[in-house]
Amino acid sequence: MRARSVIFNAALVFAAIPLLVHAQGFTPTKPVEFVTHTGVGAGGDVLARYLANVMEKEKLLPVRMHVANKTGGGGQTAMAYLVEKAGDTHTISLYTGIWISNPLMLPEAKTTMKDLTSLVRLLLEPGLIVVKSDSPFRTFNDFIDEAKRNPGTLKQSGSLVGGRDWMLRVLLMKQTGANWAFIPFPVMGERLGALLGGHTNILLVDPQETGEHIRAGTLRVIVQIADNRLPPYPNVPTMKEAGFDVPNIPVVRGVVAPPGIPREAVAYWEGVFAKLVRTPAWRKYLEDNVLEDGFQRSAEQSKFFDEYAETMRGVMREGGIKIVR
Amino acid sequence: MEIFGHLLQGFGVAITPINLFWCFVGCFLGTVIGILPGIGPAATIAVLLPLTFKIEPTGAVIMLAGIYYGAKYGGSTTSILLNVPGESSSVVTCLDGYQMAKRGRGGPALGIAAIASFIAGTLGVIGLTLLAPPLAKFALAFSAPEYFALMSFGLAMVVLLAGESFVKALLGMLVGLWLAGMGIDLFTATSRFTFGSPDLLDGIDFVVVAIGVFALGEVLVNMESREGGQMLPVPKGLRNLLPTWQDLKDCRFAFLNGSVTGFIIGVLPGAGATIASFITYGIEKAVSRHPEKFGTGVPEGVAAPEAANNSDAGGALVPTLALGIPGSGTMAILLAAFILWGLKPGPFLFYDNPQFVWGLIASMYIGNVMLLVLNLPLVPVFAQILRLPSYMLFPGIFGISIVGVFSVSTSLFDVWMLAGFGLLGYMMRRLDYPAAPLILGFVLGDSVERSLRQSLMMSQGDLSILVSRPLSASMLILTALVLIVPLFRKANAWRLKAAG
After folding, report:
1. For labelling alongside B124, which of A92, A136, B106, B491 has CA 20 to 30 A away?
2. Using one digit for the tens of pLDDT, what is the confidence trace for B259-276?
3. ipTM score here?
4. Does B196 contact A107 at a Cβ distance shorter than 8 Å?
């Protein structure tokens, strides 16, 4: 009986795969709007346009996909736009971590991920901690030791309070008892400039942004924030290997849809992106930009949203940020 | 001498017909983008980026750079003719440019802007050619305390921007500072002055404030007057549409001042063309023999800021090319483009890709000549806009203002805010509040606050960091001078009055 049901279920699953991909009747019939909360030319926008380009080249969609920039409100404008479009199967949107974190900290950020439909998670950005080439810190442990000896005197060039680099600092300070300052600079150029000018001591970067500085020897990587050592940096330990047991808080990018869309549409989009992440173009994109494949389907991603929010709550409590939701 | 060899090699690259073509396309598009308010070079470059994959990278960068500096030529057109700042860096040009247009000298103002742009653009590229590596090091020496000192110096310019009443100017600046503080605070992850609205979480866009206060405010005031028909006088004859020799002679110092100041500030990644144009305008007024005439339509008031925002382009390329650190927002997009083309921006770019770098630099000399040739003949054409009767011109200004704002954010909320700032601009004009201090406060508010807090975090709360570093100390002394000297003048005037 049991054996039969397994076979039966397996048969069902196999039968369902093509159906899922072709989504039991749902296929887009008019151009699809691909929303991003970033302005033209910013990271999210570039990725959105790249994805739309791949979709077209690989003929993954029967219709055209055009990028719509709904900027403002730290992602809230785009999120509210999606809520307004409830039930619309022809609108999807790229998200990043601030869609999860901002509603936790900002009372005005009323729309949360729970109000939207999870589609797929696409990628995770690993990180590197770098120092200037003439820095006395050969390893990350050197830095932590110094930060314990002289608390508060060392400085980190940072993005913003609540960002990934800030969260990692909170976790590391808690774990090691060390203490150093976090100085926010809004754009990468200023962060890097402060480090290269010797005004700050460490900086967390995306591998792609500073690859050339590392190659030129003006910057040195002391530790990497990734599950496994990244191919371009085989000799640099990961955080865990260096002896720091902190979660790798990822910078995440994925796709969500307006609330209340039918299950077939969710399955359709899952299918399209599952095909996309297997294309050579996408593999090359990940490799060129030193990104990790973070593909997850809808249900898995929903669970990820909850876990991510929980981790953030913990870090924010630790770092003294008021949690509003 | 090695540099000249490289530059010659660069001209060899830039002068090929295909690269000349891309240079022209870039300059032309840039001029158009500059004239249209709202959409700026950053967004244009980003949109065109995917199309450049089919072109050879050197040609592509020549075109994209052309858009960047070309937009600065075009930006002055609407500032002068309509009081609508075409780009954020041409707000200051409105002050005297529009007044010149009102007095029938719109043509000469446009001409001076084009000539100032040409001179400063070229000087900026010369600076880039000769001084890139040492200046890149200078840019790195600048950190939070130095930025704070520079921004304070900028804010002190309010003294010079004030009209009759210093108190009114100060109030305007404080409102500007307050508006700049809206949105998410980087340092505490809390929101400020959003009134519970998510639309204000990212703060207010510069374009909304500038176009509202300048353009709409002006139109609303003008609509009150009953006289229909022609709005501004436009003299007949080509000679009256171009600047006179005397105008150019008056502007000699302004050209130089704008070029040098704009270039140096342009090199700094944390300060841009808008700040540069305010500071040069202030310097120009401070050293002028007739400071009281500024704001009533003097050619120097157009030449200085226009020069500043054009030499900024050469400056912004210094850290971008020499260090791989973007010198401005647009440069950040250009750097992303380098990576997509398979180039590696960073300290090695000059050595790895000399053809590319020097081709680009050489193309900028050519591009500036092209822009001058392109823009000067347009002057008489554009000046004709002022002949339009007000029942056509006013709705037209409303139209391009709304489209300009909407094109930046595609947000109706911003259009309503534009209306709000238009009313504010109207009231300020009726009550004799100058608009420039408000814009100054708004532009600098964010950076002045941020750099102060960064400095204090670096020094663990010790204020002496601001004065113990030579660069920041000297700039703060200059700031103090700017604030104190007019007081002495005033005191002197009172004494004379009392005595006489």
Report:
1. B106
2. 999 999 999 888 888 899
3. 0.83
4. yes
